[in-house]
Amino acid sequence: MQSAVETLSPTRVRLTIEVPFAELKPEVDKAYRTIGAQIKVQGFRPGKVPPRILDQRVGRSVVLEEAVQEALPRLYTEAVTELGVLPVGRPSVDVTKLDDGVELAFTAEVDVRPEFELPAYDSLSVTVPAIVVTDEEIATDIDELRDNFSTLSPVERPAADGDYLTLDLAATVEGKEVPGGTAGDLSYRIGKGDLLEGIDEAVLGASAGDARTFQTTLIAGEFAGQTSDVAVTVRSVNERVLPELDDAFATTTGFTSVEELRNDVRSRFERMRKLEQGIEARDQVLDALLAAVDMPLPESVVEAEIEWRRESMGSQLQQAGQTLGQFLESQGKGEEEFEEELRATAAHAVKAQFVLDAVADAEQIGVTEPELSDQIVRRAQQARVSPEQYAQTLVEAGGLQGLVAEVRRGKALATVMRAATILDPAGATVDLEELREDLSADDTEHDEDGRPFHTHPDGSVHYLDED
Question: What's this model's pTM, rounded to 2 decimal places?
């Protein structure tokens, strides 16, 4: 086989490949067997029809076409290896010559990894936010804990924000009762926003026994999208009474004193802030690394990334019962702005993959079996399935190699971070090794949306990102 490569652009090449016909013999023999198994010829068993008979029945050109289609992937792969080309997409193949018994020639155009130089890692410097935990944050977190131990007390006054009401509701559309729209003795906390749009405004200031009406747009059911008239009667108004913040209360939550409780909350917030600082350092170092690299991006790879992200987002919106238009409206964005952001994000991701792969190659970074197993266990926990089930699904979906590449890139970025200079606003160096030690002992958990929370000894859950 003879092969040559021609550079069409910094990210695309054309391979010219010429193959002696004799090298196609395995594929030609297979083509005869495949076609022979599909053709019934009297006097011959299926699959045992001689080639000359098949040539007469279906034509030699059909056999050659079958053989060439079978051989092209093998020949292309051999040429890519021989020429040292690093393709990043599917080739566009054109058979330019097929001389039966003499030669096969074809060209293959394909996008390739761009060539670029990596900067010195120690030339990168970033500044990340300082670790700050305020007394207000601690007080808010403790108040949330106190709220779990609070009691409801009836009040003889108009309802205020945060009060708990007992309500009767009846919804109608043009005088017709809405199925499921009538409820009695319903408990609702003003301001929670999980019942009907407009109800807060209707019941604020109402006292026990008061009746109010308001209109709302129904979002589900037979009358979805229509305006409904809702009659609401306030049966009772109750306020939450929090327990006193003293050592006795701290004891009920598993601590010996209020001071110990405060110290525990502070330490949890500090660990969360260190996690945030580490994430910020990672993102900033990656951005600094990419900014220091000048490289063209293969358009086909960027387009494939855009399409993948668009399909992924579409699936998520469908599961949430939303359309893209509804989502963009909720975000206050137009379609053009969304497309621009999507393209920019996709280009950033593609560039990061190329650069981190280059770092991994330069540093000869590999992925060990324990490292891969650890990632599978972590992701299985997030998906709430067993590691065995997650691994099986990953293999069946053909995603194992992608996970290996992702882990390898993560190790490459960690290598760059160790060499880069990471400072806090005061100019002090941020110790990432100390950060890893703190995070390894961190009992902060994250929900399905990635929000950090911790669980108090009483079993209550408290989000650390809420004011």
Answer: 0.71
